[in-house]
Amino acid sequence: MNAFSTDNHCTAASSYHCALIGEGNLTLACAKILEQSALIIDIIITSHKKLIAWCSENNIPFAKSTDDYYQQLKAENFDYLICVINENKLHQKIIELAKICSINYHDSLLPHYAGVHATAWAVLNGENFHGITWHAMNDRIDGGDLLLNKQFSVRPNETSFSLNIKCFETAISSLPELIKKLLHPPLTLNSQQPLPKNFFYKADKPKNNGVITADMTLTTISRLINAADFGHIANDFYSVKIKIGQNFYILLQAQCVFDNHNVIPGSITEITPESIIFAFAEGYLNINKVANFKNMLDLNEVIKLEKIHLGYSLASGDQPQLKEYKKISQKHYADEMFLIKQIQLQRLANIGITANTHEPANRQYLVHHSSNLTLTNSKFVAVFCRFIAEHMQQPSVIVPIQNRTTSFKVEYQDFFLAYSFICADISKSTTLDELNKSTQLQLSQLPLIQSDIKWRYPKLNSDFIFPQLLISLEHIPCKQSAIIFHYYQEQLELLLSEHIMIDVNLIDAINSFLLLLQQHETENHIL
């Protein structure tokens, strides 16, 4: 047991000040409670629009969490730093600014489920109890001494969404008790008892990253479905998938019916226009709605396409493909998070297309040029990125690009998009050579993006999921895009989907790019 105290902060009669850091509605709710208490808010660090608006209305100083706010915090003279919802680990120099203690909120009963996705892991593991913790901050994530925790029961059919709501409500209801402690130092803190393998990183995934297999019990499947249910909140964890016939499908709606039976686990027991029912150990899985990685599907389509029948059985979970899928997903988790943030900032390259009365374009034609291009792939992409940035009049863009890593690996075609992205930061001081080096490096290590992001991020800009514009550096370009600049063996082709109408804006954009390309060739003495 430890105590935080100073000689100048020992009586309730003193005024105590705090700084608040966090995002989302929980931080806003906490700010409103703090503002009504005897604890004085000196500054709030956030990028949450509603919280910023509230700060402005109540004359509370704030700084954006996306900026370097250390100096602003340093200029204040606060006793407590309270961190509610913050994705990034705070630097030790920020933690040490609080004169008495820096405190963090966590959505589990520490030391259980430290790290991220605490509620989802609790559902996956079938916990009967869960809770929240207010703890002191140190140099270990979620590793500081305990100040206050609250426990509550977990229902058998609890989802990540419903458990998150319980954590939200418990955090709000426990905050007055926490404030009371903060107003009466010294603080009494209890050391955490270390537990083995109880920290979960952002990239950690459940078995097979959510793919249902014949050797699973219905209890495991039920927990897998419930843990993947984030409600209307973006799901950066996983989606539940099942392989029916030759293809993988995403489960959008399914029910688990527990019942004893003697049917072979993983086999189909009933097929109707409204459902496909599989038997598993402990009961049945009734599948009602599925999707591929593009669209929601009618079950009749799936039944006809896969030619499934009564007695058809799923594969077991020991497939090398599934184990590799989980590893790849973990490895490229950070790439997906980066991409999501960039899309939310609307930096996706997209040449505007407006259908008109012109005839549809031919599917493919050669772009006439003065000579064969002798640019390297990276230089071609660099010029293209510059064109896009200038065309969109913004300094930073993402250009979808064919992903050579997975294009010819049929076993992964359902799990990952057939393309990836190049991120180009272009300013007035950026030279074409610098941009070329950057694209060359990115081309050598293109990330893999999971195809199910369309379903895990319902508010995501779908332009990336089905990009209109794509660069291909391969012999067989991606077929998902409406416009493809295809650069292969020093030949530049423009491929247009059959339904695309030739538009004046599109023609102008193409001509601008070709002009830029010719200028680049001339400047570098390539012709």
Question: Your description of this structure?
Answer:
This protein is an alpha/beta fold. It is 30% helix and 24% strand. It contains 15 helices and 24 strands. The model is unreliable at 3-13 and 362-366 (pLDDT under 50).
Give the low-confidence spans: 3-13, 362-366
Spatial arrangement of strands, main beta sheet: 4-3-2-5-6-8-9
**Overall number of strands:** 24
Q: Cα distance, first to last residue?
A: 76 Å
Shape: flat
Q: In this structure, how is the largest beta sheet organized? A: 7 strands, mixed
Strand percent estimate: 15-25%
Helix count equals 15
Q: What share of residues is helical?
A: 25-40%
Structural class: alpha/beta
Query: Residue-averaged pLDDT, rounded?
Result: 87
Radius of gyration: 27 Å
Keywords:
527 residues, alpha/beta, 7-stranded mixed β-sheet, 15 helices, 30% helix, 24% strand, flat, disordered N terminus
